Known about the structure:
By secondary structure, the protein is α+β, with helices and mostly antiparallel strands. The chain has two domains: 8-111, 2-Layer Sandwich (Phosphorylase Kinase, domain 1); 117-376, Alpha-Beta Complex (Aminoglycoside 3'-phosphotransferase, Chain: A, domain 2). Helix content is 51%, strand content 12%. The protein has 15 helices and ten strands. The strands form three sheets. Strands 1-2-3-5-4 form a five-stranded antiparallel β-sheet, with helices on one face. Helix 10 packs antiparallel against helix 11 (277-300) and helix 12 packs antiparallel against helix 14. Bound molecules: adenosine-5'-triphosphate and magnesium ion.
Amino acid sequence: MELNLTTLPDYLRQRxxxxxxxxxxxxxxxxxxxxxxxxxxYRVSDAARPxxxxxxxxxxxxxxxxxxxxxxxxxxxxxxSRALDVYNRLASxxxxxxxxxxxxxxxxAMEDLxxxxxxxxxxxxxxxxxxxxxQVGRFMGIVHSHTYVDNxxxxxxxxxxxQFANATMQSITADYVFTFPFTEHETNFWTPGLAxxxxxxxxDTGFLRQAEHLKRIFLTAQQGVTHGDLHTGSVLVxxxxxxxxxxxxxxxxxxxxxxxxxxxxxxxxYFSHQGNLSVxxxxxxxxxxxxxxxxxxxxxxxxxxKSEMLENIFQDAVGFAGLEMLRxxxxxxxxxxxEGIVDLSRKxxxxxxxxxxxxxxxxxxxxxxxxxxxxxxxx
Length: 379
Ligand SMILES: Nc1ncnc2c1ncn2[C@@H]1O[C@H](COP(=O)(O)OP(=O)(O)OP(=O)(O)O)[C@@H](O)[C@H]1O
Ligand SMILES: [Mg+2]
């Protein structure tokens, strides 16, 4: 059955025993709420009791916004449902509760985070709640330290490796974050005035060498359960609580990738708020708090080699942060924080500063020792 607004009521009735949120005879209200590129997301509620609701995420066997000519395995939702299982077990309350995963229909039914807002939108509005950054730092710290290869037995590590062998999605990231932005590729675009900076970057052999090195780490390091797409659009905030969503890229990989993506999106916000010193200062504090709560979780789980392990994660994260910033400026998928700047000369100055900073992070990531040094580079 093809799933759409018309067929969904029947689907939900058939799946009643598994989902168990609605009475079988309930009249259901269904609306499409997703704003994403890959999947369709619906909110379903009981017409008589609207407080009874859930969210359905459906993966068609192709990229939703491009259509059936662009096939993409529905297996992405299997990885998302496995990640939700792991997150709920290790860090309950940090992600939506998983109600049901239907592998044949490629549908996840999960808790409806009602009245939540997307973290990116709050940052765009200049509202920086450092407590949210701490919660996301703690979430990453818990998941990474409890799945980290050196902290768990060989059999458990092997189990995670198999459960999260998400090669298809990993290869999409390898292309769109590590390769395409720095080559001639049809999906790249940038503000015309940025062309000289882009040309310079693409000819910088020192930069290209580091980008290649980070790509190799991304594709080969098998350290822990990595969300794989943890930008500020993948965090919803409900009642002052951060909830992480959209784990379809989850894989067993270099955990610094999550920190790097999350930081990069705070840095992009930082540059977008050029001239607003109080917002910029709060964003810098948030970046530090993420690291502090992250490392606190790691130091709580006992194992040797902590400081070496954390320094390695830190340096990977800095390098990944640089590449994420760059691909959001010159690759296929830009961020609203910057695309929304209407004054074009201001936009260009923001982009140029962000591009310089991202490049520096990539080139210098192996020599940075701690988060204070990282933050000092912003002033
Ligand atoms: N559990 C939930 N509760 C409330 N809203 C949700 C929930 N899950 C998703 N949403 C809404 O749907 C949107 C899209 O969800 P999600 O990012 O998982 O979809 P996606 O198709 O994978 O997106 P992308 O193309 O960005 O990867 C979210 O930004 C959010 O607004
Ligand atoms: Mg997604």
